[in-house]
Design a protein that fits this description.
Strands 1-2 form a two-stranded antiparallel sheet. Helix 2 packs across helix 3, helix 4 (82-102) packs parallel to helix 8 and helix 8 crosses helix 9. It has two domains: 1-109, Rna Polymerase Sigma Factor, Chain: A (Orthogonal Bundle); 122-202, Arc Repressor Mutant, subunit A, CATH 1.10.10.10. The protein has 202 residues and is an all-alpha fold. It starts with a strand and ends in a 7-residue tail after the last helix. It is built from nine helices and two strands, in the order ββααααααααα. It has helices at residues 28-37, 42-53, 56-72, 82-102, 114-117, 126-144, 148-159, 164-171, 175-195, and strands at 2-3, 25-26.
């Protein structure tokens, strides 16, 4: 058995603490599979958690607990492709965020600071850069004002680029309902951004 407590989870700011995984055991081959199909999606997990909670610390807590759950139940995961791991992990993140919120541990909230979590900031014309930042801020604010069921499908589709079927699996919602929610969410975003004089890139 291999201790997952010795495993570093890259890409999360701050990184998940090694001590959080003490006591979680995986067979060496399962640990290797976990690293290959789950770990590449920790950034996506954090992005989803950040949009669902609207708070950096709460998002970190959600990802931490979701990663623990992923390790705990990984022996029941049958996917092999990397994308299988992404949908599976995002489903755990979503469920973790909802369960923590029901217990009073997470507050659904407002905005996501994309600047804080981007890999790099390109040198641009200041006026263009300012306009782009304003547009992103308006879009984030508009997304934050959506009801939770609309917000999560928009994030999963437009930001995480998941298929309708993957979103259906993650949210335990029929594909037709996912498509309906996306359509309604996009209309709300267009209305909100139209009032602000900005057209969404959705």
């Amino acid at each position: 058995m291999t201790r997952v407590g010795a495993l570093i989870f890259p890409g999360i700011n701050p990184p998940l603490a090694e001590s959080s995984f003490e006591g979680a055991d995986l067979e060496p081959n399962e640990l290797e599979r976990f690293e290959a199909v789950v770990l590449p999606h920790l950034d996506a997990a954090y992005t989803l958690a950040r949009y669902l909670t609207g708070d950096t610390q709460e998002a970190e807590d959600v990802v931490q607990e979701a990663a623990l759950r992923a390790v705990k139940y990984f022996d029941g995961f049958r996917g092999a492709a990397v994308n299988d791991g992404r949908a599976w992990l995002l489903a755990i993140v979503r469920n973790t965020a909802h369960s923590l919120r029901q217990r009073g541990g997470v507050v659904t909230a407002a905005t996501f600071d994309e600047e804080q979590h981007s890999d790099s900031v390109a040198d641009e014309d200041p006026a263009v850069d300012l306009d782009r930042k304003e547009s992103r801020a308006l879009l984030r604010e508009a997304i934050a004002q959506l009801p939770a069921e609309f917000r999560e499908v928009i994030v999963l589709r437009e930001i995480q680029d998941l298929s309708y079927q993957e979103i259906s699996d993650i949210t335990s919602t029929p594909v037709g309902t996912v498509m309906s929610r996306l359509s309604r969410a996009r209309k709300r975003l267009r209305r909100a951004l139209g009032r602000a004089g900005k057209e969404p890139g959705l």
